[in-house]
Amino acid sequence: MTEDPGIQRRFDTVLGDANSARPAVCATAEAAEIYLSQNRDTQLLVVDFTLAALGGLKVVERLMKSRKALAVILLIPPHSNEIARQALALGVSATAPTSLSQKALSHVLALIREGHNLMLLPRFGTRQQGAAHTLSRRELQILALLCDGQQNKEIAHAFGIQEVTVKMHMRAVIRKLGARNRTHAAMIARDQGLV
């Protein structure tokens, strides 16, 4: 489940080497549920957590419960360590950054086939000193989704929280980064390597 053409291409290439069937792409959880019910031989589900129509980890859990032997890879935005931990506790086979390279993806799939569960985190460069260090984990997660162009309503839906809570976190992010508005906060985050 992803709308990102770059992610789709990486999986098409890697999975195309392993078998001849082209991976199916579902843009919503409902479409994925229908696909899984009609294709009982599907063994792998890749879920892009930044997908606006996803609905958070509750939907991922529902998809996993629909098929017990299904391996699930959850692609997460930067600074989403807590989401990764929660997903692994739910039974996801692997969590990995959305920026995962084709070569790394091949290794992840090989480890999953061998029965391993894993959590991959991107290596972060040194951050600049200052207000960025005071951002909470949730604020960093919300900032990452903001930088992906998501609106407050979409971010709230992704985390399963109220929109007013996202607005509260967004105000804190803007204040801590010394930004003028959401767009400026996203620019600062990219400039400082926070996302």
Task: Report a brief summary of the structure.
The protein is of the alpha/beta class and 195 residues long. Helices cover 51% and strands 9% of the residues.
Architecture overview:
The structure is a single chain. With about 200 residues, the protein is of the alpha/beta class. Residues about 125-130 have low confidence and may be disordered. The chain has a 4-stranded parallel β-sheet. Helix 2 runs parallel beside helix 3, helix 6 (about 135-145) crosses helix 8 and helix 7 crosses helix 8 (about 165-175). The protein is globular, with a radius of gyration of 17 Å. It has helices at about 5-20, 30-40, 55-65, 80-90, 100-115, 135-145, 150-160, 165-175, 180-190; strands at about 45-50, 70-75, 95, 120. It has 9 helices and 4 strands, in the order ααβαβαβαβαααα.
Strand order of the largest sheet: 1-2-3-4
Percent of sequence in beta strands: 5-15%
Evaluate the radius of gyration: 17 Å
Q: What's the tally of helices?
A: 9
Uncertain runs are 125-130
Number of strands: 4
Q: How is the main sheet built?
A: 4 strands, parallel
Oligomer: single chain
Helix amount: 40-55%
Mean pLDDT: 78
Order of helices and strands: HHEHEHEHEHHHH
Could you say which structural class the secondary elements and strand pairing correspond to?
Answer: alpha/beta
Dominant shape: globular
What distance lies between the first and last C-alpha atoms, to the nearest angstrom?
A: 22 Å
